[in-house]
Amino acid sequence: MALKTYNRLKSIRTLARELRKEATDSEKLLWVQLRNRQLSGYKIIRQHPLIYSSDYTGMHFFIADFYCHAKKSVIELDGLVHQERQEYDLFRDEVMAEKGFNILRIKNEELSDMEKVLAKIRLFLDSVSS
């Protein structure tokens, strides 16, 4: 692996680590319910980088709020900032779907009924073929 590629991967991982440290209240709230395989035994990790292409300009990636590798599934929490970046979110979802990722978007307001959100995530992950 070239040094430049290694350094880029390292910087992507560092960014993901920083995002984990600076999690939103909504992300923290949901993470308490998803961590340690608490949801039907699914291993879910947070702020996980997904590299979707690489070319002469560098690596192109997204960082998923939550990711289940076994189901190749992304769970995104949408807060107020997402109202202003709907076009970017649509682009993101299209690219991830083209790469075979399954995407579930949950609005922050939905977290007021955590049991309903957990049931929605469980149903989503159960419906995805491995």
Can you walk me through this structure?
With 130 residues, the chain is α+β, with helices and mostly antiparallel strands. The chain contains 4 helices and 4 strands. The chain has helices at 3-21, 25-34, 86-98, 114-127; strands at 45-55, 58-68, 73-78, 102-107. Strands 1-2-3-4 form a 4-stranded mixed sheet, sandwiched between helices.
Name of the top-level CATH class: Alpha Beta
**Which sequence of SSEs, written as H and E, runs from N to C?**
HHEEEHEH
How much beta, percentage-wise?
Answer: 25-35%
- Chain-averaged pLDDT: 91
C-alpha Rg, in Å? 15 Å
Q: How many structural domains does the protein architecture include?
A: 1
Strand arrangement across the biggest beta sheet: 1-2-3-4
Indicate the structural class: alpha+beta
Distance between the amino and carboxyl termini: 30 Å
Share of helical residues: 40-55%
Counted by DSSP, the helix tally is 4
Q: Which CATH-level-2 architecture?
A: 3-Layer(aba) Sandwich
Topology at a glance:
Blueprint: H1 3-21, H2 25-34, E1 45-55, E2 58-68, E3 73-78, H3 86-98, E4 102-107, H4 114-127
Parallel strand pairs: 3-4
Antiparallel strand pairs: 1-2, 2-3
